[in-house]
Design goal:
heterodimer, A: alpha+beta, four-stranded antiparallel β-sheet, B: mainly alpha, two-stranded antiparallel sheet
C-alpha cells in the first residue's frame, strides 16, 4: 500500500519519470566517507560520495568520458598556455545562491591551499583569471592537454555560503561547517549525517540537469564486515552493496531476486623491485649484491608467474592479464606493446643462470593483506611459483596502514602494488611510478624501488605537453617499450570490480569504482 | 569508607595513566596515520608538513605528556580522520555500547541463573546434560561465528530480525536509546544474545557449582531435616548464599563485556565505541584510539569499585575488618 501511494505521488510529481515510481534506495559500502568537505581528502570513498552532491566544471560519463557539467564548453587559451571554461548559466546551489565564476575562483583558491589534500591537481596551474560572470581562465605553466580531464573531481563550493559559515578552508585541525554540511549544485543534497552510522541524501529538485533516476531518498550505511554486508543485502535491508568478496558471488547468484555486477576496475596489480638497492635485505645466501638490479633476473621473475592458474584458482576467472601499468581502454594504452612475458619456467631458469644465479637465491617479498582483492593469497601463490625456478621469496604480509611506511623506508626486496590512474591516462602512472624519484618536482612519489631511466624522465614532460594525440601516443609507446624492456615492474592483471544488488535495481558500474546515484532506477 | 573510595579513585588515575602510556607506546607500531589521511597524489612534501603540524615528529615522551596534559585539562583532541572532537565522537557511541552490554548481561542472568539452579538440583537429568552440552558448544564457538550464524538464521533465512545497525532509536536528552521502541529491541536482540552467550555459560556454571556446594553444606541438611519446604529451601536459603560470589564475578566480568563488545559490534555493524575503535585502528586515528582505551580503563576501574562496594555491603565480615 505504501509503495502504491509513493508510486502515485511520484507519478504526479514528475511526468518525466516515465511512470517509474519514486523509491527509497538503501546502499552500503565498506568505508564511510570521512568528511563532507570536497577539498579535504583525496580519497575514493569521499570523492565518490560527494560527486552525488557537488559538481565540477566537467564530469565523467558512464563510460568514463569527460562531458560538460558546470562548464558548458572549454578551449585552449590563445597566446598562452591554459584553458578557458565557459560556465553554465542559470545554475543555483542547493541553498538558492546563483553559481558564477566567482565560486569557481573561490573553490580553486580553497582547493589549491596548503590545507587541501587535493592541491596536487593544481600543480600545473600558474594563474586563474575571472573574465566575466560565466567565463574563467586557468593558465598553466606549460601546454596541458589533459588539464580538463584532471579536474573532473574538482568540486565547486558556493563562495557566499563558505564565507557565511566560516568554512573558507578545509578543516585542518578541528572540524568546520563544511565537514558536516553541504551546499553543492549536484543532483542530491544531504538530508542527515551521522558519521560512520548513516547518511541520507534527498534529490535536489532544482538540479539543472534532467534527473534520470527515480530515487526519492537515498540511505547510505557503511558496513565494514563483508559477511554482515552480504547478510544485509540478502535479507533485503539494503538494495545494493559495493564491493562484495569474490567468494560470495555464488551465494548471491544462487538466490532469486539478486544479481552480481561485474566489471573491470582500472587498477593494475604489479610487482615492484628495489632497483636502486645496493644489496638484498632479506636474503640468506646473497648478502652483498642485489640480483634484481639485473633486468634478466627481473624478467626471470616475470616468466616464473603462471597468471592463468592464478586467475583460475584465486580469482574464479575474473581478472584480465595486464601488459603495462594501465588496462586497455585507458587513454595512452600502448597497443604496440600488448604482450606480457609468458609463463615459461625453463626460460626463467635460463635467464637466472645467465645472470649468474643458476642456484637461485632468497629474497624478501612484501605484500599488504587488506588492500587489494586476495592480495595475500596472490603473494603466496606467486612465492611458490617463484620458488619453482629458484627464487625463494620470504613472504611477509601486513595491513596497509603499516605497509606504505615500510615501502617508503625502502624495507623490501620485492613488493606488491596496485595502481589506478587518477586521471585515466597513462601519463599518471608514468608520473608517479616510472619517473625517477624527485621530491622537489613532486615526481616519482610512488616509485618506491627507485626505478630510473633518463629517457623516461625526458619523455614525461613531452607527453604532458603534447597536444597532437598521435604524436603523444608515439611518446607513450616509447616509454612503455622501454619500461617493458627494463622490466621496471611486472604488471599482473586488472582487478575485478564486483558489486551486488537486488534484481529490481538498475545502476551503472563505472570503472573508477565510483557509484553515482543519478544513474539508479528502482523498478 | 570515604577513605576507601578516595584511595580507589587515586589508584584509578594511575591505572588510566598506565593504560595511556602503554597504548601510546604501541601506537607507533599500528602504522602511519599520514599515509591513511592523505590521497595517493599528495606530495611527499605535503605529507611531511602534515606530519609536522600534527606533532608526529616530536619525541615519544613529548607526545605522551601533551596527550595526557590535554586530557587532564578536559581537551580530548580531534580525530585525524573525521576532524570531529574525540570527546563528542566517543560520547555519542557510549549509549549503544552500554545498552548492548547491559541487555547482554540481563539476558545472561535471566537465563543463566535458573539454568544453573536447575542443573544443580537435577545433576543427572537428561535436560541438564543437554543444557551443559549446548552451552559448552556455545562457549567454544568464537563470538563472530555465533553472530554470523544468528544473522543468517534469523535475519536472512527467516527474515524475523534485522541483520545490522540499531534500528529505531529514541533520543532522550543526549542519550540515543534502543530500549523504547519495538524496532530498537528487534535490532538489539541478536547482538545482545551473541555478546551474552559467554557470560550466560559462565553464570550458569558458577551458579551450578556454588549451588551444589551449598546444597551439601550442614545448614541445608539441617533445614532439610527440619522440614523446611523445598521451594523455600532452594530459593531462599541455598540460592541467596550462592549469589554472593556469583555477583562478584559477574560484576567484574561486566567490564570485560563492555571492552570486548568490539567483535559483536563489528559483526552487527552496531554503532558503539568498539566499532569506532576498530575503524580508528584501520585509519591509525591515534587521538580516538588513545581516548577509547583510557575510557575503557576508566570503566574497568569504575566497575571494580562498584563491585568492591557491593561486596562490602553484602558481606558483613568485610565491614568489621574495615572498622578495625
Amino acid at each position: 500500500m505504501k509503495t502504491l501511494k509513493l508510486a502515485l505521488l511520484g507519478g504526479a510529481l514528475s511526468m518525466s519519470a516515465m511512470g517509474a515510481s519514486a523509491e527509497t534506495f538503501r546502499w552500503a559500502s565498506n568505508t564511510d566517507p570521512q568528511t563532507m568537505d570536497p577539498h579535504a581528502v583525496n580519497s575514493a570513498p569521499v570523492l565518490s560520495f560527494l560527486n552525488n552532491v557537488y559538481e565540477g566544471l566537467v564530469r565523467r560519463g558512464q563510460n568514463m568520458s569527460i562531458e560538460p557539467s558546470l562548464a558548458t564548453s572549454w578551449a585552449p587559451l590563445e597566446g598562452e598556455n591554459g584553458w578557458r571554461f565557459t560556465l553554465r548559466e542559470g545554475v543555483t546551489f542547493q541553498d538558492g545562491a546563483a553559481f558564477t565564476s566567482e565560486d569557481v575562483m573561490f573553490s580553486y583558491q580553497r582547493a589549491s591551499n596548503e590545507a587541501a589534500d587535493v592541491r596536487s591537481w593544481f600543480a600545473p596551474v600558474s594563474d586563474v583569471r575571472v573574465v566575466d560572470d560565466f567565463t574563467i581562465d586557468f593558465v598553466t605553466t606549460a601546454p596541458n592537454p589533459l588539464f580538463p580531464d584532471s579536474i573532473a573531481n574538482f568540486m565547486i563550493l558556493d563562495k557566499g555560503w563558505a564565507e557565511a559559515n566560516d568554512a573558507l578552508l578545509p578543516a585542518r585541525d578541528a572540524e568546520n561547517f563544511a565537514t558536516m554540511n553541504v551546499n553543492g549544485t549536484g543532483p542530491f543534497t544531504l538530508a542527515s549525517r551521522d558519521p560512520g552510522v548513516r547518511t541520507t541524501l534527498s534529490p535536489n529538485a532544482n538540479w539543472w540537469d534532467e534527473a534520470s533516476h527515480n530515487v526519492s531518498e537515498a540511505v547510505f550505511t557503511p558496513i565494514g564486515n563483508s559477511a554482515t554486508g552480504l547478510a544485509a543485502l540478502l535479507s533485503g535491508e539494503v538494495d545494493f552493496i559495493q564491493p562484495i568478496p569474490l567468494q560470495d558471488i555464488a551465494q548471491v547468484e544462487g538466490r532469486d531476486g539478486f544479481k552480481v555486477l561485474e566489471g573491470e576496475e582500472t587498477r593494475v596489480i604489479m610487482f615492484g623491485f628495489g632497483h636502486e638497492h645496493e644489496a638484498l635485505l632479506y636474503s640468506s645466501n646473497v648478502q652483498d649484491a642485489n640480483p634484481f638490479a639485473d633486468p634478466r633476473v627481473r624478467l626471470a621473475a616475470a616468466h616464473a608467474l603462471d597468471l592463468a592458474s592464478i586467475d583460475r584458482v584465486l580469482f574464479r576467472g575474473k581478472i584480465e592479464a595486464a601488459s603495462q601499468l594501465v588496462p586497455a581502454g585507458i587513454s595512452g594504452f600502448s597497443e604496440a606493446n600488448q604482450d606480457r612475458p609468458s609463463f615459461d619456467p625453463e626460460r626463467a631458469k635460463a635467464l637466472l643462470a645467465e645472470a649468474g644465479y643458476s642456484d637461485g637465491f632468497s629474497f624478501g617479498l612484501k605484500c599488504p593483506n587488506d588492500r587489494y582483492i586476495n592480495d595475500e593469497a596472490l603473494c603466496r601463490a606467486a612465492a611458490s611459483m617463484f620458488a619453482a625456478v629458484g627464487l625463494n621469496a620470504e613472504l611477509s604480509t601486513g595491513p596497509v596502514r603499516d605497509y606504505w611506511p615500510q615501502l617508503r623506508a625502502d624495507d623490501f626486496d620485492m613488493y606488491l602494488l596496485g595502481w589506478s590512474p587518477g586521471t585515466f591516462d597513462m601519463e599518471h602512472p608514468i608520473r608517479f611510478l616510472l619517473h625517477s624519484q624527485d621530491n622537489d618536482k613532486k615526481l616519482g612519489s610512488w616509485n618506491f624501488g627507485g626505478y630510473s631511466n633518463a629517457r623516461v624522465d625526458e619523455l614525461l614532460p613531452q607527453i604532458q605537453q603534447e597536444i597532437d594525440p598521435s604524436a603523444r601516443q608515439t611518446l607513450v609507446d616509447e616509454v612503455v617499450a622501454i619500461t617493458q624492456e627494463d622490466v621496471a615492474y611486472i604488471p599482473l592483471y586488472t582487478q575485478p570490480l564486483i558489486w551486488a544488488a537486488k534484481d529490481n535495481v538498475e545502476l551503472t558500474q563505472r570503472a573508477d569504482n565510483f557509484f553515482m546515484l543519478r544513474w539508479v532506477t528502482v523498478n | 569508607m570515604v577513605y576507601f573510595i578516595l584511595k580507589r579513585m587515586i589508584q584509578s588515575v594511575f591505572v588510566m595513566l598506565t593504560v595511556a602510556f602503554l597504548a601510546f607506546s604501541l601506537f607507533r607500531f599500528v602504522g602511519d596515520p599520514i599515509t591513511q589521511m592523505t590521497g595517493v597524489e599528495t606530495s611527499v612534501e605535503d605529507q611531511e608538513r602534515l606530519r609536522e603540524e600534527l606533532g608526529l615528529n616530536d619525541p615519544f615522551v613529548y607526545q605522551f605528556t601533551r596527550f595526557t596534559g590535554d586530557m587532564l585539562k578536559g581537551d580530548f583532541g580531534f580525530s585525524y580522520r573525521t576532524r570531529q572532537p574525540v570527546a563528542e565522537m566517543i560520547a555519542s557511541r557510549i549509549p549503544a555500547t552500554l545498552e548492548l552490554g547491559v541487555v547482554a548481561l540481563i539476558i545472561s542472568l535471566l537465563v543463566g541463573i535458573p539454568a544453573g539452579v536447575y542443573t544443580a538440583l537435577k545433576p543427572r537429568g537428561v535436560l541438564t546434560q543437554t543444557i551443559l552440552m549446548t552451552t559448552l558448544v556455545g562457549v567454544s564457538i568464537p563470538t563472530f561465528v555465533i553472530g554470523i550464524m544468528l544473522i543468517f538464521i534469523f535475519g536472512v533465512q527467516l527474515g524475523w530480525l534485522p541483520t545490522f545497525g540499531r534500528g529505531g532509536t529514541v533520543q532522550i536528552g543526549g542519550w540515543e536509546s534502543s530500549l523504547f521502541s519495538f524496532d530498537g529491541w528487534r535490532a538489539l536482540l541478536l547482538p545482545a544474545i551473541t555478546l551474552g552467550v559467554y557470560q550466560l555459560t559462565l553464570t550458569m556454571r558458577l551458579v551450578r557449582a556454588e549451588m551444589m556446594e551449598v546444597m551439601r553444606s550442614d545448614y541445608i541438611r539441617f533445614a532439610m531435616a527440619r522440614g523446611v519446604p523445598t521451594a523455600s529451601l532452594h530459593y531462599r536459603h541455598a540460592l541467596a548464599n550462592t549469589m554472593v560470589p556469583v555477583i562478584t564475578i559477574i560484576g567484574l566480568q561486566f567490564g570485560g563485556v563492555i571492552a570486548f563488545s568490539i567483535v559483536t559490534e563489528s559483526v552487527f555493524q552496531w554503532p558503539g565505541m568498539g566499532l569506532l575503535f576498530l575503524e580508528s585502528i584501520r585509519f591509525v586515528d591515534i587521538p580516538v584510539m588513545g581516548v577509547y582505551l583510557v575510557v575503557i580503563a576508566f570503566f574497568f576501574v569504575l566497575v571494580n569499585l562498584v563491585v568492591d562496594l557491593l561486596y562490602v555491603a553484602i558481606d558483613p565480615r568485610l565491614r568489621i575488618r574495615d572498622v578495625s
